[in-house]
Amino acid sequence: MPPSVDSAPLFAEQASGSLRLIGYLALAAALMTADYRSAALVAVRAYAQNLSAPAYWLATAPVRLARSLRDASAERLELVKENAALREQLLRAQAGLTQSGPLQEENSRLRELLDARARLHLQAQLVELVEVDLGLYRHRLLLDLGSASGVAVGQAVMDAHGLIGQVSRADLDHAEVILITDPGHAVPVRVVRNGLRAVAYGSGEVDRLELPYIPFSADIRAGDELVTSGLGGHFPAGIPVATVTQVRGDDSATFAIAEAAPNAGLTHGNQVLLLSQIADPPPPPATAADAPASAPEPQP
Amino acid sequence: MSRQREGVLLFWSSLLLGLLLMVIALPEALRPWRPFWLGLLVIYWSLEAPERMGMGRAFGLGLVADVLVGTLAGEHAFRLVAMAFIVLRFRARMRFFPMWQETLAVLAILLNDSLLTLMLRSFVGATVVDWRYWLAPLVAALLWPWWFLMLDDLRRRSRPREASS
């Protein structure tokens, strides 16, 4: 019978195809679990990532070409102007690092009064970004330095205007930064105006942070500047983070939720500042803690 | 002999180009529109040359993509294997579809892939997407006819005597 002769190997083929599918999917799932749950793949990944360096080099070639063409054709005057603007930005960044805001100053005065340690001096390093796209909804950046240059997981990353995020993975020559807008990221903050504490969570949108579980009685309003509070010890205190744009009731109508716009340019710029780890322990919590502050959890 | 080698060259260079197109930086406004190039490549090659692109190679390609993009090892592999499987299973029918029907089938495969990606990421942690998330599969499906014709044409050029693919 021709049909049976034809259909028998066809079904056999389909069955083996399904088996192979299940095998491959199980293998992929096992890999994902291993990568997520344990550090078993870290070494393999660091090695493999090295091999991808040429791919990054090729992928960023158009950007570099466009930039060198622009540099070559730009008028000298424009370059001078840009130079001046960059100088100003750099100055502002330096100023921001040594004393970010009057609150920090006041804080250090109090510390001196208490015979505490001298004011926190931050060490920062200018790092180039590798301009590749790591996915629209993943909120990640790639740094051009890795663990070979001393980059470690947890280091804070900022630009001249504010906090960008923290290092979430360090390979030999590259490091991945998780942005403060990632839905899996949280940073303890403080309102500059009155010292109110809160935690700013990423919203998944590149221009918005959320500060949930704020009591309605708390004094926070649109326009308030938020800086890192230093609680949890992951971020140095006093780095500008965001500006409150709106305060509204949450779905349960028990707490208020504040929305804030990040100060840093998260979608542009090609250089960032990598802050070195702070050796000082975080300052003791004050009595005016209004919201729970938790350590930021970098997503693996 | 050398014709065969050129076909091989086209195959591997298309994969390399697909990987680069995945991570190449785009202006902010264009980012949501980026099609899943690797997906389109896997669909094309498993449809037209299943001896070159089976589930095994789709898996390997996915692992390379995972390293490059920095996703969990296995995420892209999972997605591409699922794609290759669907195409291989319905290959006999898809190849005789008129172009518009084939495009719809590709759209269905890509939408399924987007859904699968959301599912995989939601296991790992919070993922927030908006309506723009669904633009990429649409764009990719709209590109499909041109993509198909271009690759077909390139393949035909690389072996001039066997005009039919």
What does this structure look like?
The complex is a heterodimer of chains A (300) and B (165). Chain A has helices at residues 2-37, 42-51, 53-59, 61-73, 76-98, 101-113, and strands at residues 124-128, 140-143, 156-158, 163-170, 175-179, 186-191, 197-202, 209-214, 225-228, 240-249, 256-262, 271-275. Chain A is an alpha+beta fold and 300 residues long. In chain A, a hairpin with a 4-residue loop joins strand 4 and strand 5. Chain A is globular, with a radius of gyration of 24 Å. The N and C termini of chain A lie far apart (58 Å). Chain B has helices at 2-23, 37-48, 55-69, 75-94, 99-124, 135-158. Chain B is 72% helix and 0% strand. Chains A and B meet through helix 1, helix 2 and helix 3 of A and helix 1, helix 3 and helix 4 of B.
Summarize the structure.
By secondary structure, chain A is an alpha+beta fold. Chain A is 34% helix and 23% strand.
Features:
heterodimer; A: 6-stranded antiparallel β-sheet; 12 strands; disordered C terminus; B: 165 residues; mainly alpha
